[in-house]
Specification:
- The chain is mainly alpha-helical and 258 residues long.
- It has a domain at 46-146: Serine Threonine Protein Phosphatase 5, Tetratricopeptide repeat, CATH 1.25.40.10.
- 61% of the residues lie in helices and 5% in strands.
- It has a 3-stranded antiparallel β-sheet, with helices on one face.
- A hairpin with a 5-residue loop joins β1 and β2.
- α3 (83-95) packs antiparallel against α4 (99-112) and α11 (220-232) runs antiparallel to α12 (238-253).
- The chain starts with 10 loop residues before the first strand and ends in a 5-residue tail after the last helix.
């Protein structure tokens, strides 16, 4: 299988086993433990920036959005190449219903981390489409509130209600598919999500999940083809690249899902 190298060598995936030892892709073929991953950047983030970021998150969790935004701004000034404060600022603006400011912050994250950082890509895509009138006002705010809920019948019910109102919201189909028990129902939700022209991160996650279902159904060639194609696409995000690599390695070593 041919894979591509990251176009940004300062922003790469690091894989580790449970003992903290770094793993290479070749190691995954024979690895059966837990794989941990992180995005490694070339720039050191100062303790002060991390402290300001943590204080901002605490303020946001307490509902003090103004203080949170002030702290995220200070963290960004301290570490201008660190996407995290910008991401949290965008998320905070989204919670406050300010789509224009949310879009501004998320687009700053996009410039710093074009291959993904947390869930800014689905959120940015939702904000852009709501701003363009494709989704009803409040759709993105409602979606992010639901997406952070623990899996439960209530979460499924809220997602179904959201999708009745906004059936072209790809990330909501992704979240709903995770909650469904039957593989055929999961595939139907995944295909509906893929038909929505979702953002690249959502699309990649949907395809990985589709490949895993195909593996369970014994459709190994189709599963492998989906994963290999994802690994050859330049736009594949870092998190999707990792999950696709791990899934492909496990399928090739253990074709039966067990």
């Amino acid at each position: 299988m041919e894979t591509r190298k990251s176009s940004d060598e300062s922003n790469r995936l690091m894989l580790q086993d449970d003992k903290g030892q770094e793993l290479k892709l070749a190691d995954l073929a024979g690895f059966t433990g837990t794989v941990h991953w992180a995005i490694v950047g070339s720039e050191h983030v100062s303790h002060r920036a991390q402290k300001l970021q943590a204080l901002g998150q605490q303020a946001g969790a307490a509902g003090d959005h103004a203080r949170a935004l002030s702290l995220f701004s200070q963290a960004h000034e301290e570490a201008p190449e660190w996407p995290y404060p910008l991401y949290e600022a965008g998320y905070t603006h989204l919670l406050m219903g300010d789509l224009a400011r949310a879009q501004h912050e998320y687009e700053a994250v996009e410039r710093l981390a074009p291959r993904g950082f947390f869930t800014y890509k689905p959120e940015l895509d939702c904000v852009r489409r709501e701003s363009a009138g494709e989704f009803a006002p409040g759709t993105c705010h409602f979606y992010v509130a639901i997406s952070n809920m623990p899996n439960s019948p209530e979460k499924r019910s809220l997602l179904e209600k959201l999708l009745e109102r906004s059936p072209r919201l790809g990330p909501a189909w992704e979240k709903l598919a995770e909650l469904l028990k039957d593989d055929d129902a999961k595939l139907a939700a995944i295909d509906k999500g893929l038909a929505c022209m979702p953002d690249v991160q959502t699309r990649g996650t949907l395809l990985v999940n589709k490949a895993l279902i195909f593996r369970r159904q014994g459709k190994l060639d189709q599963a492998i083809s989906i994963l290999q194609d994802l690994l050859l696409e330049p736009q594949t995000t870092l998190d999707v690249e990792l999950t696709a690599k791990v899934a492909l390695s496990q399928i090739q070593r253990h074709p039966s899902a067990g």
